[in-house]
Automatic annotation (TrEMBL):
Protein name (database record): Iron-sulfur cluster assembly scaffold protein IscU/NifU-like
GO molecular function, one term: iron-sulfur cluster binding
Pfam family, one: NifU_N
Organism (species): Intestinimonas butyriciproducens
Gene Ontology terms: biological process: iron-sulfur cluster assembly
Length: 133
């Protein structure tokens, strides 16, 4: 089996799909090679991510990694969410095929883009960790 049960579960029943009106941070990223697009919305209260939603126009792994990434940062402080890596997302899903790892990179980047937007909207300096490679 190419995909783990967890990947299939998050693909078939993605968590936190949708958008947040008046979100405190919004980030959209895309992979020019496959054309997949991911958009993340964050609701942040007192530095805590109280809600997160996503929309992904992309492959099954992109949907599963977005879903898992939202679960991993929900309820966390922004500083903690900044430390989320694509490897951690893939690991939480029980692994991804090597050629699908870039899908998890998209999830990490979407969250960082949304966090960068949050810092900017707050008039704060955007932390290094938010900046995309
Ligand atoms: Fe979308 Fe293959 S990249 S189906
Ligand atoms: Fe590009 Fe999955 S194939 S994000």
């Amino acid at each position: 089996m190419l995909y783990t049960e967890k990947v299939m579960d998050h693909f078939e029943h993605p968590r936190n799909v949708g958008e947040i009106e008046h979100a405190d941070g919004v980030g959209q990223v895309g992979n020019p090679k496959c054309g997949d697009i991911m958009k993340m919305y964050l609701k942040i209260d007192d530095g805590v991510i109280t809600d997160v939603k996503f929309k992904t126009f992309g492959c099954g792994s992109a949907i599963a990694t977005s879903s898992m990434a939202t679960e991993l940062i929900k309820g966390k402080r922004v500083e903690e969410a900044l430390g989320l890596t694509n490897a951690a997302v893939a690991e939480a899903l029980g692994g991804l095929p090597a050629y699908k790892m870039h899908c998890s990179v998209l999830a990490e980047e979407a969250i960082k883009a949304a966090l960068a937007d949050y810092y900017q909207k707050q008039g704060l300096e955007v932390p290094e960790a938010c900046k995309l490679a």
